[in-house]
Each structure stands twice: as structure tokens, then as C-alpha cells.
Amino acid sequence: MIEIRIRQAEAGDAQGLRDLYAMPKAQKGTLQMPYPTLAMWQKRLAERSGYGLVATVDELLVGDLGLWLEPNPRRRHVAGIGMGVRDDWAGRGVGSALLGAAVDLADNWLNLQRLELTVYSDNAAAIALYRKFGFEQEGGSPAYAFREGNFVDALHMGRVRLP
């Protein structure tokens, strides 16, 4: 049985995050650009707002999830989510562990009512994961992003927890 450990991201995670988002599938499923630098990830970690969670297995960083709180007072009940998993760890429970931890944090510690995310419409595995945690499709954006020489569509998904 693999033990996936979830913890808050730390400054020393820059190398692991750079390696994760340098992988082809991780780039294809996110808005990350090719050839990320260590300095870029060091800066991102230093400036990251909200909650940054990472998944590790035996000290190897295998997944990342950012949960950022909306700054507008009228949307303080809302947070956005973005995540990535190492290509060689996809389908092994990392996404479920990260998303489960984020939902627990949102529901039981931050008293958030709404979680939002955007996912490419061709990312069936991610869409299934989000649905497993109660996210529903709320809309879509044609030609949302440019990826590998083509425009790709995206879905907007949300999870609402009523009091």
C-alpha cells in the first residue's frame, strides 16, 4: 500500500514543483508553460497566497494543489482550485488525496460554501475526479487556451455546500 502524505507546500518544494510541471501530461492538463525554471518556482512559492498543498511519497513530490480564497468581501465564501500530478503518478490516488484534503480544509476549517475550478474538456480523468468530489459542470469556454498548437475548450465546474 502506497502512503501518500499531504502537507503544506514549503520553500524547499520548488525543485519538485518544477520537475512536476516540466512533465508533458502535467503541462497538457494545466496552464503551465514548457521549460519551467527553478527560480520561477522559488518566486511562486514565496508569493503564493491561499493554501498550497503538496502530495509526497517517500519524500518525492508527486502532486500539487492550490486553493486560493476570493479577496472580494462578497465572495469570501468562495475559493478556486488548481492542481497537477506527476505524469508517472497519475491514476494512483494522488489527485484524490489532494482533492480530499482540500475539500476537508474548505468545509471543516475555512467554512467555505463554494469551490470553483476550470478543466480542459478533453481531460476525462480530471473531470471524473472532480465529479467524484461533488463538482458539477456549470459552463464552458470554447477556445479557452492555446496548447500544443491548437485551441482547447474548457469546462467550469463548481461544488456548493449549503449550510
Structural class comes to alpha+beta
CATH class of the domain at 5-117: Alpha Beta
Query: How much β-strand is present in the residues?
Result: 35-45%
Give the N-to-C terminal Cα separation.
36 Å
Question: What is the CATH topology descriptor of the domain at 5-117?
Answer: Aminopeptidase
The whole-angstrom Rg is 15 Å
Low-confidence stretches: none
Order of helices and strands: EHHHEEEHEHEE
**Number of beta-strand segments:** 7
Mean pLDDT across residues? 96
**Largest sheet features:** 7 strands, mixed
- Fraction of residues in H or I helices: 25-40%
Strand order of the largest sheet: 1-2-3-4-5-7-6
Count of helix runs: 5
Which descriptor suits the 3D outline? globular
Q: What is the CATH homologous superfamily assignment of the domain at 5-117?
A: Gcn5-related N-acetyltransferase (GNAT)
CATH architecture of the domain at 5-117: 3-Layer(aba) Sandwich
